[in-house]
UniProtKB/TrEMBL annotation:
Domain EGF-like: 235-270
Superkingdom field: Eukaryota
Disulfides per UniProt: 260-269
Record InterPro entries: EGF, LE_dom
Organism (species): Aphanomyces stellatus
Protein name from the UniProt record: Aste57867_790 protein
Keywords: Disulfide bond, EGF-like domain, Membrane, Transmembrane, Transmembrane helix
Length: 350
Protein backbone atom coordinates (compact mmCIF):
# COMPACT_ATOMS: atom_id res chain seq x y z
CA UNK A 1 0.00 0.00 0.00
CA UNK A 2 2.81 2.40 0.82
CA UNK A 3 4.43 1.79 -2.57
CA UNK A 4 1.13 2.52 -4.29
CA UNK A 5 0.84 5.77 -2.37
CA UNK A 6 4.31 6.91 -3.35
CA UNK A 7 3.72 6.09 -7.00
CA UNK A 8 0.50 8.06 -7.12
CA UNK A 9 2.19 11.06 -5.54
CA UNK A 10 5.04 10.84 -8.03
CA UNK A 11 2.63 10.86 -10.96
CA UNK A 12 0.81 13.81 -9.46
CA UNK A 13 4.02 15.81 -9.09
CA UNK A 14 4.53 15.62 -12.84
CA UNK A 15 1.03 16.92 -13.55
CA UNK A 16 1.16 19.62 -10.92
CA UNK A 17 4.43 21.04 -12.23
CA UNK A 18 2.58 21.83 -15.46
CA UNK A 19 -0.28 23.66 -13.76
CA UNK A 20 1.22 25.70 -10.96
CA UNK A 21 3.10 28.96 -10.90
CA UNK A 22 4.51 28.32 -7.41
CA UNK A 23 3.60 26.16 -4.40
CA UNK A 24 0.82 27.65 -2.30
CA UNK A 25 1.30 28.38 1.38
CA UNK A 26 -1.68 26.47 2.69
CA UNK A 27 -3.01 28.71 5.45
CA UNK A 28 -6.28 28.07 7.34
CA UNK A 29 -7.95 30.64 5.05
CA UNK A 30 -6.76 28.82 1.91
CA UNK A 31 -8.01 25.52 3.34
CA UNK A 32 -11.46 27.05 3.86
CA UNK A 33 -11.55 28.57 0.38
CA UNK A 34 -10.18 25.44 -1.30
CA UNK A 35 -11.10 22.31 0.68
CA UNK A 36 -8.53 19.55 0.24
CA UNK A 37 -5.92 21.73 -1.53
CA UNK A 38 -2.44 20.19 -1.61
CA UNK A 39 1.09 20.73 -2.84
CA UNK A 40 3.27 18.26 -4.74
CA UNK A 41 4.50 15.47 -2.50
CA UNK A 42 1.16 14.84 -0.83
CA UNK A 43 2.15 15.77 2.73
CA UNK A 44 -0.92 18.01 3.04
CA UNK A 45 -3.16 14.98 2.48
CA UNK A 46 -1.86 12.94 5.42
CA UNK A 47 -4.03 15.01 7.75
CA UNK A 48 -7.09 13.30 6.26
CA UNK A 49 -5.79 9.74 6.60
CA UNK A 50 -3.39 7.30 4.91
CA UNK A 51 -5.66 6.70 1.89
CA UNK A 52 -5.65 10.31 0.64
CA UNK A 53 -3.26 11.24 -2.16
CA UNK A 54 -2.57 14.55 -3.89
CA UNK A 55 -3.87 14.62 -7.47
CA UNK A 56 -3.32 17.54 -9.85
CA UNK A 57 -5.23 18.56 -12.98
CA UNK A 58 -3.39 20.06 -15.95
CA UNK A 59 -5.16 23.19 -17.21
CA UNK A 60 -4.38 26.10 -19.50
CA UNK A 61 -6.74 28.45 -17.63
CA UNK A 62 -4.90 31.43 -16.07
CA UNK A 63 -4.27 32.04 -12.36
CA UNK A 64 -4.84 28.51 -11.12
CA UNK A 65 -1.86 28.03 -8.80
CA UNK A 66 -1.97 24.58 -7.19
CA UNK A 67 -4.83 23.06 -9.10
CA UNK A 68 -4.44 19.97 -6.94
CA UNK A 69 -6.65 18.28 -4.36
CA UNK A 70 -6.50 15.33 -1.98
CA UNK A 71 -8.41 12.32 -3.34
CA UNK A 72 -9.45 9.22 -1.41
CA UNK A 73 -7.67 6.33 -3.14
CA UNK A 74 -9.54 3.76 -1.05
CA UNK A 75 -13.05 4.71 -2.19
CA UNK A 76 -11.95 5.59 -5.75
CA UNK A 77 -9.54 4.27 -8.33
CA UNK A 78 -7.27 7.25 -9.04
CA UNK A 79 -6.46 8.41 -12.58
CA UNK A 80 -2.74 7.62 -12.75
CA UNK A 81 -0.32 5.28 -14.55
CA UNK A 82 -2.21 2.37 -16.09
CA UNK A 83 -5.40 2.98 -14.12
CA UNK A 84 -8.34 5.12 -15.26
CA UNK A 85 -10.14 6.66 -12.32
CA UNK A 86 -11.18 9.71 -10.37
CA UNK A 87 -9.79 13.23 -10.72
CA UNK A 88 -10.48 16.10 -8.31
CA UNK A 89 -13.61 18.19 -8.72
CA UNK A 90 -13.68 21.84 -7.70
CA UNK A 91 -17.36 22.73 -7.45
CA UNK A 92 -17.02 24.41 -4.04
CA UNK A 93 -13.71 26.18 -4.79
CA UNK A 94 -13.58 29.84 -5.94
CA UNK A 95 -15.17 30.52 -9.33
CA UNK A 96 -11.95 30.54 -11.36
CA UNK A 97 -11.13 27.01 -10.11
CA UNK A 98 -14.73 25.75 -10.36
CA UNK A 99 -14.60 26.28 -14.15
CA UNK A 100 -12.24 23.31 -14.52
CA UNK A 101 -13.86 20.20 -16.02
CA UNK A 102 -11.66 17.19 -15.17
CA UNK A 103 -11.01 14.40 -17.66
CA UNK A 104 -9.00 11.23 -17.06
CA UNK A 105 -6.87 11.22 -20.22
CA UNK A 106 -4.50 8.64 -21.68
CA UNK A 107 -1.55 10.78 -22.79
CA UNK A 108 1.56 9.88 -24.74
CA UNK A 109 4.85 9.29 -22.91
CA UNK A 110 7.57 10.60 -25.20
CA UNK A 111 10.18 8.05 -26.27
CA UNK A 112 8.69 5.21 -24.24
CA UNK A 113 10.82 2.12 -24.82
CA UNK A 114 9.07 -0.37 -22.54
CA UNK A 115 5.30 -0.58 -22.67
CA UNK A 116 2.88 -2.99 -21.00
CA UNK A 117 -0.18 -3.80 -23.10
CA UNK A 118 -3.72 -4.77 -22.10
CA UNK A 119 -2.77 -8.44 -21.87
CA UNK A 120 -0.01 -7.64 -19.39
CA UNK A 121 2.74 -8.39 -21.90
CA UNK A 122 5.75 -6.13 -22.45
CA UNK A 123 5.81 -4.77 -26.01
CA UNK A 124 9.03 -5.34 -27.95
CA UNK A 125 11.37 -2.35 -28.25
CA UNK A 126 11.40 -2.52 -32.05
CA UNK A 127 7.60 -2.19 -32.12
CA UNK A 128 7.76 0.85 -29.85
CA UNK A 129 10.32 2.47 -32.16
CA UNK A 130 7.87 1.98 -35.02
CA UNK A 131 4.99 3.62 -33.18
CA UNK A 132 6.91 6.54 -31.65
CA UNK A 133 7.47 9.57 -33.87
CA UNK A 134 10.84 10.27 -32.24
CA UNK A 135 13.56 7.61 -32.45
CA UNK A 136 15.40 8.39 -29.25
CA UNK A 137 19.00 7.35 -28.73
CA UNK A 138 18.50 7.26 -24.95
CA UNK A 139 19.47 4.05 -23.26
CA UNK A 140 17.54 4.76 -20.09
CA UNK A 141 14.41 2.70 -19.66
CA UNK A 142 11.28 4.80 -20.15
CA UNK A 143 8.20 2.80 -19.24
CA UNK A 144 4.54 3.27 -20.08
CA UNK A 145 1.41 1.38 -21.16
CA UNK A 146 0.09 0.64 -24.62
CA UNK A 147 -3.53 1.19 -25.66
CA UNK A 148 -5.28 0.75 -28.99
CA UNK A 149 -8.16 3.04 -30.00
CA UNK A 150 -10.34 1.92 -32.88
CA UNK A 151 -11.12 5.20 -34.61
CA UNK A 152 -14.16 6.38 -36.50
CA UNK A 153 -12.14 6.59 -39.73
CA UNK A 154 -11.55 2.82 -39.70
CA UNK A 155 -7.97 2.84 -38.44
CA UNK A 156 -6.54 1.94 -35.05
CA UNK A 157 -4.41 4.39 -33.08
CA UNK A 158 -1.70 2.74 -31.02
CA UNK A 159 -0.75 4.92 -28.04
CA UNK A 160 2.16 4.49 -25.63
CA UNK A 161 1.32 6.49 -22.55
CA UNK A 162 -0.18 6.83 -19.07
CA UNK A 163 -3.37 8.14 -17.49
CA UNK A 164 -3.39 11.61 -15.96
CA UNK A 165 -5.97 14.29 -15.11
CA UNK A 166 -6.43 17.21 -17.50
CA UNK A 167 -9.01 19.95 -17.99
CA UNK A 168 -11.58 19.51 -20.77
CA UNK A 169 -10.04 22.34 -22.82
CA UNK A 170 -6.63 20.65 -22.70
CA UNK A 171 -8.20 17.33 -23.72
CA UNK A 172 -10.05 18.84 -26.67
CA UNK A 173 -7.24 21.11 -27.86
CA UNK A 174 -4.78 18.20 -27.75
CA UNK A 175 -7.33 15.79 -29.30
CA UNK A 176 -6.34 13.11 -26.82
CA UNK A 177 -9.26 11.04 -28.08
CA UNK A 178 -8.30 11.53 -31.75
CA UNK A 179 -11.41 11.61 -33.95
CA UNK A 180 -13.37 10.17 -31.00
CA UNK A 181 -12.79 13.30 -28.88
CA UNK A 182 -16.12 14.99 -29.57
CA UNK A 183 -18.03 11.73 -29.05
CA UNK A 184 -16.25 11.11 -25.75
CA UNK A 185 -17.04 14.59 -24.45
CA UNK A 186 -20.68 14.28 -25.59
CA UNK A 187 -21.03 11.10 -23.53
CA UNK A 188 -20.07 13.14 -20.44
CA UNK A 189 -22.03 16.28 -21.33
CA UNK A 190 -23.83 18.18 -18.59
CA UNK A 191 -27.49 19.15 -18.65
CA UNK A 192 -28.77 22.18 -20.55
CA UNK A 193 -31.49 24.35 -18.94
CA UNK A 194 -32.53 27.99 -19.29
CA UNK A 195 -29.58 28.89 -21.50
CA UNK A 196 -27.15 27.26 -19.05
CA UNK A 197 -24.88 24.39 -20.06
CA UNK A 198 -23.40 22.53 -17.10
CA UNK A 199 -19.82 21.26 -17.19
CA UNK A 200 -18.82 17.67 -17.83
CA UNK A 201 -20.65 15.22 -15.58
CA UNK A 202 -22.60 18.22 -14.27
CA UNK A 203 -19.44 19.14 -12.33
CA UNK A 204 -20.05 16.27 -9.91
CA UNK A 205 -17.63 13.67 -11.24
CA UNK A 206 -14.85 12.74 -13.66
CA UNK A 207 -15.19 12.12 -17.38
CA UNK A 208 -13.08 9.08 -18.14
CA UNK A 209 -12.75 5.66 -19.79
CA UNK A 210 -15.45 3.09 -19.06
CA UNK A 211 -12.71 0.48 -18.70
CA UNK A 212 -8.95 0.15 -18.71
CA UNK A 213 -7.50 1.27 -22.07
CA UNK A 214 -11.00 1.79 -23.45
CA UNK A 215 -11.76 4.57 -25.95
CA UNK A 216 -15.36 4.70 -24.70
CA UNK A 217 -15.88 7.50 -22.16
CA UNK A 218 -18.53 8.16 -19.52
CA UNK A 219 -19.01 9.77 -16.12
CA UNK A 220 -17.56 8.45 -12.87
CA UNK A 221 -19.77 10.19 -10.31
CA UNK A 222 -18.78 11.43 -6.89
CA UNK A 223 -20.63 9.61 -4.12
CA UNK A 224 -24.00 11.13 -3.34
CA UNK A 225 -24.92 11.81 -6.98
CA UNK A 226 -27.04 9.72 -9.35
CA UNK A 227 -25.17 7.58 -11.85
CA UNK A 228 -28.17 7.58 -14.20
CA UNK A 229 -28.00 11.17 -15.46
CA UNK A 230 -24.29 12.03 -15.72
CA UNK A 231 -24.09 12.82 -12.01
CA UNK A 232 -26.73 15.57 -12.11
CA UNK A 233 -29.15 14.69 -9.30
CA UNK A 234 -28.04 14.53 -5.65
CA UNK A 235 -29.37 11.42 -3.94
CA UNK A 236 -27.81 11.52 -0.46
CA UNK A 237 -25.52 13.40 1.93
CA UNK A 238 -22.77 10.81 1.52
CA UNK A 239 -19.60 12.26 -0.03
CA UNK A 240 -16.10 11.12 -0.94
CA UNK A 241 -14.65 14.20 -2.63
CA UNK A 242 -13.63 17.57 -1.25
CA UNK A 243 -15.21 19.25 -4.26
CA UNK A 244 -18.62 17.73 -3.51
CA UNK A 245 -21.54 19.13 -1.49
CA UNK A 246 -22.27 22.12 -3.72
CA UNK A 247 -20.88 25.63 -3.70
CA UNK A 248 -22.00 26.26 -0.10
CA UNK A 249 -21.10 22.93 1.46
CA UNK A 250 -18.05 20.83 2.27
CA UNK A 251 -17.36 17.12 2.58
CA UNK A 252 -16.27 16.04 6.06
CA UNK A 253 -13.58 13.36 5.48
CA UNK A 254 -14.15 11.93 8.96
CA UNK A 255 -17.88 11.27 8.68
CA UNK A 256 -18.04 11.03 4.89
CA UNK A 257 -21.06 13.35 4.88
CA UNK A 258 -21.79 16.87 3.69
CA UNK A 259 -21.72 19.85 6.03
CA UNK A 260 -23.84 22.73 4.72
CA UNK A 261 -23.43 26.43 5.42
CA UNK A 262 -26.26 28.44 6.95
CA UNK A 263 -29.01 29.05 4.42
CA UNK A 264 -28.61 25.77 2.52
CA UNK A 265 -29.71 22.22 3.29
CA UNK A 266 -30.72 18.96 1.60
CA UNK A 267 -28.74 16.22 -0.15
CA UNK A 268 -25.35 17.61 -1.22
CA UNK A 269 -26.51 20.99 0.21
CA UNK A 270 -28.66 21.49 -2.91
CA UNK A 271 -31.64 23.26 -1.27
CA UNK A 272 -31.88 26.92 -0.27
CA UNK A 273 -33.77 28.69 2.52
CA UNK A 274 -36.29 31.17 1.02
CA UNK A 275 -35.88 33.42 4.07
CA UNK A 276 -32.07 33.59 3.83
CA UNK A 277 -31.79 36.06 0.92
CA UNK A 278 -30.27 35.80 -2.54
CA UNK A 279 -26.80 35.08 -1.19
CA UNK A 280 -27.78 31.41 -0.98
CA UNK A 281 -28.20 31.53 -4.78
CA UNK A 282 -24.84 33.27 -5.31
CA UNK A 283 -26.60 36.57 -6.17
CA UNK A 284 -27.35 35.07 -9.59
CA UNK A 285 -30.85 33.90 -8.77
CA UNK A 286 -33.54 33.72 -6.12
CA UNK A 287 -34.70 31.00 -3.77
CA UNK A 288 -38.16 29.64 -4.60
CA UNK A 289 -40.74 28.56 -2.08
CA UNK A 290 -39.84 24.92 -2.76
CA UNK A 291 -36.26 25.56 -1.62
CA UNK A 292 -34.79 25.48 -5.13
CA UNK A 293 -32.71 28.29 -6.60
CA UNK A 294 -34.21 29.86 -9.73
CA UNK A 295 -31.16 31.04 -11.66
CA UNK A 296 -30.71 33.90 -14.07
CA UNK A 297 -30.12 32.97 -17.72
CA UNK A 298 -26.64 31.50 -18.39
CA UNK A 299 -26.18 30.60 -14.70
CA UNK A 300 -26.79 27.23 -13.10
CA UNK A 301 -25.88 24.82 -10.34
CA UNK A 302 -27.69 24.18 -7.07
CA UNK A 303 -26.76 27.69 -5.87
CA UNK A 304 -26.53 29.35 -9.35
CA UNK A 305 -22.78 29.37 -8.78
CA UNK A 306 -21.69 28.34 -12.26
CA UNK A 307 -21.46 30.24 -15.53
CA UNK A 308 -22.48 28.34 -18.65
CA UNK A 309 -19.65 26.13 -19.93
CA UNK A 310 -18.13 26.77 -23.38
CA UNK A 311 -15.97 24.51 -25.51
CA UNK A 312 -12.52 25.09 -26.97
CA UNK A 313 -11.96 23.83 -30.52
CA UNK A 314 -10.68 20.31 -31.11
CA UNK A 315 -7.29 20.15 -32.83
CA UNK A 316 -5.75 17.46 -35.01
CA UNK A 317 -4.72 14.18 -33.31
CA UNK A 318 -1.46 14.24 -31.38
CA UNK A 319 1.82 12.67 -32.40
CA UNK A 320 3.69 9.63 -31.02
CA UNK A 321 0.95 7.34 -32.33
CA UNK A 322 0.53 5.18 -35.39
CA UNK A 323 -2.60 4.40 -37.41
CA UNK A 324 -2.58 0.73 -38.41
CA UNK A 325 -5.05 -1.45 -40.35
CA UNK A 326 -8.39 -2.03 -38.67
CA UNK A 327 -8.06 -4.30 -35.67
CA UNK A 328 -10.07 -5.05 -32.58
CA UNK A 329 -9.26 -2.44 -29.98
CA UNK A 330 -7.72 -3.76 -26.79
CA UNK A 331 -10.50 -4.27 -24.30
CA UNK A 332 -9.33 -6.80 -21.76
CA UNK A 333 -8.18 -5.41 -18.45
CA UNK A 334 -5.38 -6.71 -16.27
CA UNK A 335 -4.81 -6.33 -12.58
CA UNK A 336 -2.79 -3.27 -11.62
CA UNK A 337 -0.74 -3.81 -8.50
CA UNK A 338 2.45 -2.35 -7.12
CA UNK A 339 4.40 -3.20 -10.28
CA UNK A 340 1.97 -1.18 -12.42
CA UNK A 341 2.43 1.88 -10.28
CA UNK A 342 6.19 1.43 -10.54
CA UNK A 343 5.82 1.62 -14.32
CA UNK A 344 4.00 4.93 -13.95
CA UNK A 345 6.80 6.38 -11.83
CA UNK A 346 9.49 5.32 -14.29
CA UNK A 347 7.58 6.82 -17.22
CA UNK A 348 7.16 10.16 -15.52
CA UNK A 349 10.62 10.75 -14.16
CA UNK A 350 12.66 9.34 -17.04
Amino acid sequence: MQFKYLAVVAAVTFAQDETTEAPVTITPTVKVQRPGVCNAGGKDCTAYGPDYVCVAVQSNLPNLANLAQCVNSKTNAVCVGGTPGACPTFNNWPTNFARVQPVCAFVTVKDCNKATNAAGAVVAARELQATNSSNSSKKAEIQCYQANYQLQNGSTAKINGIYKCVDKDVYRQSAYGFDLTDKQMKNCAGNVTNGFTAGLCNQHGTCGPTGQFSAEYGCMCNKGYSTNDNCNAPVSDVCDAFGACGALGACDPTSGKCKCQAGVTGPQCNKCDPTAGNGTCSNHGSCGLDGTCVCQATYGGAQCESKSATDAPTKAPRSNTTAVPVATAASSAFAVGASAFAVAVAAIFA
